[in-house]
Amino acid sequence: MSFPFRKITALVKKYRAGLLIAGCGAAFSVNILYHVFPDNAFKKVYQAWSKGEPADLSEKLEKTFQEVLTDLGVSSPKKYSAFAAFGFQPVGAGVPWMPSGARIGIPANFNSTLDDSTGITNRVILINGKEVDWDSSSGTVLKDALLFSPQAQKFAVAREVARLDSGGPVLHATVAPACLAGVCVYSVALKQIFGLYSGPALKRGAVNVFALALGAVSYLLTSDAVCHWMDYKSDRTAASVSQDYAKGGVEFYDKILSRNKTLRTLMGQKGGETYAPSGNLFPSSMFRMKHASYTSRREGVASLLKLDKA
């Protein structure tokens, strides 16, 4: 039993640099693959369907999308394309400077306006197995939360474009390989500090386990920190386009918070587990909070609006 273990250990030591590079490359590839081929991985997941066929993006939303690209001054607008997505807020994936470009999914409720809500009220939405009654008090509040002004719609699309245009997916994909390299650095440094290279194998194994645990904690904290930074940065970029965009940003987050509060009530126990009384999402784990809270993002946009007015 000890001979194969020693042989494997010797091979790992001999090719440590090559294995580390290969491992980091694999970790980066796994995280970026979703964005390198957005049509195969992302679009198929979020594509909206109508009568068994992929839904087409309306001319109105295509025009809005092109206006956002122009307002943001995107260097390669042809690398971006939009499609009709399910859900209630825009989503995006892709790397603009890669051959496949970037895809932005825009939901159907963006076709509706404050004066015409037929794009929402003609849809059947089931919550806890029951159809939402749009004429009820909670249904009216939910309907209002799903109706956005043109400025709010543009802000919502712009923040996704800004996130992709700034290389957000690439930055996030580098976290895993960086932390994997960190595990190797932790392990080597601790063994050198405590002189364990000539010590018992059990102690070296314990150090390796500790380094792995430290690397895992580093990944969780760094990954969340990068996501929060990208959230705030994309908001700032979108809100900085003009005061109309900033006002739209405040409205957008106000309505998301209102929607979540209503869903918390309509969904019963599940809603109480998913949404906080403020309208923010509860973290999926006690160890992680993947995205910045909606209230803090709203406050960030509101502070930019105040600075512009000052």
Automatic annotation (TrEMBL):
Q: What protein am I looking at?
A: Transmembrane protein 177
Lineage, highest ranks first: Eukaryota, Metazoa, Chordata, Craniata, Vertebrata
Top-level taxon: Eukaryota
The terms describing its cellular component in GO are: membrane
Functional summary from the UniProt entry: Plays a role in the early steps of cytochrome c oxidase subunit II (MT-CO2/COX2) maturation and is required for the stabilization of COX20 and the newly synthesized MT-CO2/COX2 protein.
Q: Which family does it belong to?
A: Belongs to the TMEM177 family.
